Predict the structure.
Amino acid sequence: MSNETTTKVKRFTLVDAYEKWLSFRESEGIRPSTIRRNRYTMKHFSNVVGKSLPLSSITTTTIDTYRNYCIQTNMKPNGININLRAVKTFLNWCHKRDLIKKCPYVDSVSMPKKMPLYMSDELFNKVLELDWLEDHYKNAFLFYRNTGLRLSEPFQGELHGNWLLVGGDETKQQMDKELSLSMNNVQRLSDMIEYADKSFKGTIDSFKSNLSKTFLKAVREIDGEETKFHFHCLRHTFAVRRYLQTRDIYQVKQEMGHSSVTTTEIYAKFNLRRLEMDFPSLVNNNKSLEKRDLGYDNLGYTQNDKSLTASIIST
């Protein structure tokens, strides 16, 4: 590296560097929502430690200063760690490109590991029974509960027959996702997209926001204003229901689109007896399937047809 290049690196500010990083991430096809979150984090970080701070001056002490500021301003631990992960990713990117000589250590905020929050049959059915809740919302909530898809994924994928294909440039794990849907869920998906395109007055992003807010409103009416349930709980609900149905954590991993089974294993930590009590509809359905396996119900179902249950996601 020439002396001239070295001088340029020393004058490279934090803002210069993170703008270059964000441009790189955009060119790599990172989701716009992730880019927006990264930009918010880096602006917050630079406001705390100094926008004109030379990139080469960032040390572990700088990171600790930011971390302590977040704690003292009563940011939630999870939010702090999300920001710290983005800062760490940014610094690793800088280090790999010789923009900094050493990558500072980023110490996350310790927090207890919480179990995912899911909705029992009883609670979910109460939401569906609300008189004011329009049918298109009910069908949408059923679709998400029965597929485990993230809020944006149905609108990012393409439907081929009963297969929903979501490209890796659209998924959180940057991996292609393929999900086989039941005919009921194919119809729900088609109806939801048609409503968003033709009946909803607004953009797709505003429609997704409306779904999330309406779900929260409905749950608050059932569970109280301080409810901890939110839209993403439908994804958790799918995961525990599928584990209860299949007892196969690797299959659940595949259907959830996780890059590692380690992420999925938390759903296998729930007590099965508790899950059976919370999802009696699945228990009754499984008993019917067991009768078929034993020849009590001659519907052409055999043990070799297990792949059907594995690939076609809930009604």
Remarks:
- The longest strand covers residues 177-181.
- The beta strands are 158-160, 163-166, 177-181, 312-313.
- Residues 5-10, 290-312 have pLDDT under 50 and may be disordered.
